Amino acid sequence: IKEAVATKKMPPWFADPKYGHFANDRSLAQKDIDTLVAWADAGAKEGDPKDLPKPLPFVTGWNIGKPDLQLEMPAEFNVPAKGTIDYQYILIPGDFKEDVWIQNAEVRPGNRALVHHVIAFVRPPGSKWMKGAQPGVPYVPVKDEEGGPNEFLVGYAPGFLPVQLEEGRAKQIKAGSDIILQMHYTANGTEGTDRTKVGFTYAKGPVTERIVTLAATTNKFAIPAGDPNYEVNAAFEFGGDAKVVDFIPHMHLRGKDFEYRAVYPTGEKETLLKVPNYSFNWQLTYKPMTDLVVPKGTKIECTAHYDNSPNNPNNPDPTKVVKYGDQSWEEMMFGFFDVAIDANKDVKSIYPPQKKKPAAAL
Length: 362
Prior knowledge:
This protein is mainly beta. 5% of the residues lie in helices and 35% in strands. Strands 1, 4, 7, 8, 11, 12, 15, 18 and 21 form a nine-stranded mixed beta sheet that branches. The radius of gyration is 21 Å and the shape is globular.
């Protein structure tokens, strides 16, 4: 405990305190760290039992409460003991007869030992993405397949929490939409099966703001073998006014640090979040104390650095050039962020004209 808190390894929180203030900051105050260190140095003696607080209730089921709707993979997926497993996409017909507003959403993996991550996407009616997929049948897209991932609804990865939005805010699923699960399985030496499910609760009151997940991202990079500090940049420009409500940086095992900046139409720049020691094992979300109001023309710039050197203990192979790819030994550069817009506003209005929105994947 002493080592974990003194080195700030626990609780996991990686935001540089010089930039921004976050509502979900889980880091310990220095006085609390000093108390724990002194307690450990004194032999970790037990205190008076009558001073014990009530035991914390640990949730064993859904963190969002009983879902209004549960969707489950129609059949188990068999995960082999060895080898690389392509991302599997599972189409689950939504049977949504009308537009619905989702206030809470959660993915529950069927086998946490084999499920690396899950993303539940909304595929609206008319979309050509995954047009070859059959309900419940695992599907691997062909290269350059038409269309691309649609709206990010909810995800699961180490450190991720369920979507739990405040009153008046929700994500939307259009009538006639399907849910597509992007499944990333990792073999661990033992065969197994998985049957993941996703649950939703509907907004009970009026919805005034729609939450949408966006990203500053690029797949145009090649990290040289042995490079200890390779830089990759990406940006997203707003085509309309919005509010940024959180940040979710995402890289893989060579990820070193990540930074978000806002560049306003006036030319003013502001550092929004700096993660100097990124951890692939904790995919954290950072929620500012107050929403960031971004006018049309604002750019969210992201800068990431990667350590492809032998000094990175997590590096799968420092002798290889590393490019973008789905698997953990490849790399990604996603500066995800959620925005709130007027519930009656067309999502397309926040994208710059004639620019396609970025793909969303973990």
